[in-house]
Amino acid sequence: MTGAVGLVADYVCDRAQPTRHAILIDPADQSPEVAAKRAIAAATAGSKMILVGGSSDTDGANVDATVLAIKEGLELVSWASSQDSDTDNLNSKTPVVLFPQGSSALSPSADAITFMMLMNSTDPRFLIGEQTLGAPFVKKANIEPIPMGYAICAPGGKAGEVGKADLILSNETDRVAALAMAAECFGFNLFYLEAGSGAAKPVDSQLIRTARASCELTLLVGGGIRDGKAARAAAEAGADWIITGNIAEEFDDADELQRSLAALIEAMNPQS
Ligand code: 1GP
């Protein structure tokens, strides 16, 4: 598959769907085996995409091992569930998509990559530098790029610090509108509003509403979303995807994680 719009982009950008949930797995925080167990629990709970990445330092070998373990795990469980008429079929096609912290943490095994510009970074490295370093790898490995504008809102957390972001404040609606419009003008498919992993407060609903009203892009929201109520608020404000990271890392038991994520997803979209 080549080109900017491929099968995974079509799936991710299908805005006719109700708000969907994706889990973010940081390969720096867990072994590939644990990552695979968590991804399986998430997909079984109803998560529709597995993002792999984060703002911590790690290398390509670790990212690749994590992506491979997740893909193999999902395929195995999907096959097993297809043999058992009593269980819901787990879709092995749940895409495993890179959400890279930089050009050195890429995997050729991923289904796609969010090829992102950190639009409110003050450092050219995150506007075009890392992307230029990573593009030859993406092309050679034939990973489907999904162009994404990434904007970090206060408090921003580690992503904001590492990315040297000029954080968007909760009252800066004009600014978020302009960024969303710029992302659309660039031809990006996705626009991601990030509060930072572990944020005490998720992205302000008014910022989400403004971004939603300002562009036709698929809107992702993440950072500090820890329960169904927060996920619901972001969904109601217009998010197409809710991303959660930290909460998955709090569960060592995969069944507990599955139950917790299923409850979050149910509360996010009570009618679907
Ligand atoms: C991913 O920042 C989000 O972009 C994840 O945030 O870890 O707070 O869910 P949490």
Give the helix/strand layout.
Blueprint: H1 7-12, E1 20-25, H2 32-45, E2 49-53, H3 60-82, E3 96-99, E4 112-118, H4 124-141, E5 144-152, H5 157-162, H6 173-186, E6 190-194, H7 205-214, E7 218-222, H8 228-237, E8 241-244, H9 246-249, H10 254-268
Parallel strand pairs: 1-2, 1-8, 2-3, 3-4, 4-5, 5-6, 6-7, 7-8
Helix pairs in contact: 2-3, 2-10, 6-7, 8-10
Bound molecules: SN-glycerol-1-phosphate.
SN-glycerol-1-phosphate binds next to β8.
How would you sum up this structure in a few lines?
With 272 residues, the chain is of the alpha/beta class. The chain is 44% helix and 17% strand.
Describe, in plain words, how this protein is organized in 3D.
This protein is α/β, with parallel strands linked by helices. The protein has a single domain, classed as FMN-linked oxidoreductases (TIM Barrel). Helix content is 44%, strand content 17%. Strands 1-2-3-4-5-6-7-8 form an 8-stranded parallel beta barrel, surrounded by 6 helices. The longest helix is centred in the first third of the chain and has 23 residues. The N terminus is likely disordered. Bound molecules: SN-glycerol-1-phosphate. The site of SN-glycerol-1-phosphate has 14 residues, from strand 8.
